[in-house]
């Protein structure tokens, strides 16, 4: 049984790799299985069955499950995620907003759609973060390095001189986004209306930011 659905980030990562078709199928199968069953409950037999290869083929290309997980996450951390961040920053810089609400609407909806498009790999990432805090620290450092300097000036320009906006003022937005996104990350079969969720988030936060 071949895996028919590949997430955006993994597709980008595989496109940039020199992996064989069988290796790519193994990684696609692992993404699905690790996200649905968890790393510990997934066997190499499960992986081989979903990837459409023999269990011996899995071991031929990867020494163990840990090596497969590293093959999923390391390229994302090292190159794909930074590239995605830079692309988002460049795209945001092209936008022209006439209000703080318009800017936030774009940022919130864009990032929520990004999470939905990549919910499986993000779920595997979050599972690994629980046992590998260095992974979380490196991802957070990358986000601060790339997102904050690029996005904050765009938002701060809408501040009132007597009440300048700071990063702290936007933290409630992140919390509200998580309340909508975590359920669909943990249960990928769930659906989320991004436009509706974005509207509700802005309704909650705009009075405090205005």
From TrEMBL:
**What are the alphabetically sorted keywords of the record?**
DNA-binding
The question of whether DNA-binding is a record keyword is answered with: yes
* DNA-binding region(s), chain positions: 43-62
Q: Any keyword DNA-binding?
A: yes
Q: Which GO terms describe its molecular function?
A: DNA binding
Which PROSITE patterns does the record match to this protein? Answer: HTH_TETR_1 (PS01081), HTH_TETR_2 (PS50977)
The UniProt entry, under InterPro entries, shows:
DNA-bd_HTH_TetR-type_CS, Homeodomain-like_sf, HTH-type_TetR-like_transc_reg, HTH_TetR
What SUPFAM superfamilies has UniProt attached to this entry?
Answer: Homeodomain-like
Specify the superkingdom. Bacteria
Q: Which residues form the HTH tetR-type domain?
A: 20-80
Any one of the GO BP annotations: regulation of DNA-templated transcription
Q: Name one Pfam family in it.
A: TetR_N
Gene3D superfamilies, per this entry?
A: Tetracycline Repressor, domain 2
Alphabetical list of PANTHER family matching this protein: HTH-TYPE TRANSCRIPTIONAL REGULATOR RUTR (PTHR30055), REGULATORY PROTEIN (PTHR30055:SF222)
Q: What is this protein called?
A: TetR family transcriptional regulator
- What is the taxonomic lineage of the source species? Bacteria, Bacillati, Bacillota, Bacilli, Lactobacillales
């Amino acid at each position: 049984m071949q895996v028919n659905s590949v997430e955006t980030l993994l597709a980008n990562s595989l496109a940039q790799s020199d992996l064989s078709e069988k290796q790519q199928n193994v990684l696609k199968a692992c993404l699905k299985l690790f996200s649905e069953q968890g790393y510990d409950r997934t066997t190499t037999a499960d992986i081989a069955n979903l990837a459409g290869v023999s269990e011996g083929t899995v071991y031929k290309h990867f020494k163990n499950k840990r090596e497969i997980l590293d093959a999923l996450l390391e390229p994302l951390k090292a190159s794909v995620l930074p590239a995605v961040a830079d692309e988002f920053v460049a795209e945001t810089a092209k936008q022209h907003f006439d209000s703080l609400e318009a800017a936030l609407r774009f940022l919130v909806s864009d990032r929520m759609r990004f999470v939905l498009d990549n919910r499986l790999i993000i779920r595997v990432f979050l599972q690994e973060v629980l046992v590998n805090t260095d992974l979380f620290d490196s991802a957070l450092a990358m986000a601060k390095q790339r997102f904050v300097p690029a996005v904050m000036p765009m938002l701060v320009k809408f501040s009132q001189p007597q009440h300048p906006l700071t990063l702290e003022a936007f933290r409630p937005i992140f919390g509200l986004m998580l309340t909508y996104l975590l359920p669909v990350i943990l249960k990928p079969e769930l659906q989320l209306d991004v436009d509706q969720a974005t509207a509700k988030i802005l309704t909650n936060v705009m009075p405090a930011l205005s």
